[in-house]
UniProtKB/TrEMBL annotation:
This is MFS transporter. PROSITE patterns: MFS (PS50850), SUGAR_TRANSPORT_1 (PS00216). Gene3D superfamilies: MFS general substrate transporter like domains (1.20.1250.20). Residues 1-403 form the Major facilitator superfamily (MFS) profile domain. It comes from Cytobacillus stercorigallinarum. It is a multi-pass membrane protein. The keyword Transport applies. InterPro entries: MFS (IPR011701), MFS_dom (IPR020846), MFS_trans_sf (IPR036259), MFS_Transporters (IPR050171), Sugar_transporter_CS (IPR005829).
Amino acid sequence: MKNLHPAIRIRLLLQFISSISTMAILPYIIIYFAGEVGKAVTGILFLCVMLASVLGSLLGGVVSDRVGRRKVILLAELFVFIGYIGAAAVNTTVGAYPYITFLFFIIIQFSTGVVNPAYQALIIDVSSPEERKMIYTYAYWVRNLGIAIGSMIGAFFFFSHLVLILLSAALVSLLSILMTKVFIKETYQPNVQWQKRGQTIQMYKDYLEILRHKFFILFILASVLIVAVEEQLTNYIGIRLTEQLPNPVPIITAIPMELDGMNLLGFLKTENTLLVVTLTFVVITVIKKWKERVTFLVGLLLFFTGYTVLSFTTIPMLLIFAMFLASIGEMMYIPMQQALLANTVPDHARSTYMSLYGVSIFLGVSAAGVVVIVSEWLPSLVITGVIGFMGGLSFILFARLVSIEKKQGERNISNLKSTYRY
């Protein structure tokens, strides 16, 4: 950790703090809106917020590559700060104004979408390919620890201390602004000619150029499928467990502990978080001598196997074991996936590429929702087949990508040797 660039160390600290504040709010804000305006309207508001985040990401990616990371981070975090202050102001003891709160969350999510590609590009700017696997391992662990702490804080205090929770999130954004302003220097100097290409139509051309990058597009498709599978836990799998296990069942016959479907879902999510927080560095230590390609593919195999089993069984111990497999696989593949992505994007368009990667997460979540819709008409065995197919296709695509990367690396080494030979 000490050998990492100061900007990366600061970013990991801020990521930890912001994960806590964000997860103390986002999982519970939907419940807040549902209670204030009803479920149907909440669904529409949620889609609008998601769309704002996607549009922000697309804009932030291009702008960050045009003007640099630091300016985008400072401006976007300022609007996040304003959004949380505004949301807190309209939810005082005087009264609650859900639609005005919604407008402030549009600002928050749009600005968060803008800043995320800049943060991701900043890490790539100041890191070497050799460092990235460990950097993304730290980032993965920090994020999950923050999620665990933030979720617990939100569960106990969101509804009883809503204004205080929102003000705390505002302070986190203010801290991000101050630490970025004082401690982080600009990590990317855009080409002058690149800056002059400022027309809106050029932004579309930039994205069209990326869409011709076949390696990256295959990476995006494989990543969409991963997210679509992972999101089944809180979508199809969660619904199925709740419906098929309405009454408590024993986990193990010898232990007097019973859980219904809803309890099991919460147990599985907690299991995943606890395993990631406690075992990430243990797993990394055990597999450190493995080839990266093997680690990546074995991790994917374990992850998809676990989720496929979760999609059809209702036996508690089998569910718990399947989540254990999926969690171990997740710890193995995520740092490799992020490093592969970072090594793929060109220097002059890092933030733009990262913004499209952010959109892939939205597409994966949307695909998970489609699975829930079609599950109304298809047998559960067919849905399991669909989930297994998505996992298998993602595995094949990633296997192809790491093979291409390996061949490209060998070709570069061969060319380097030829250069020195002459």
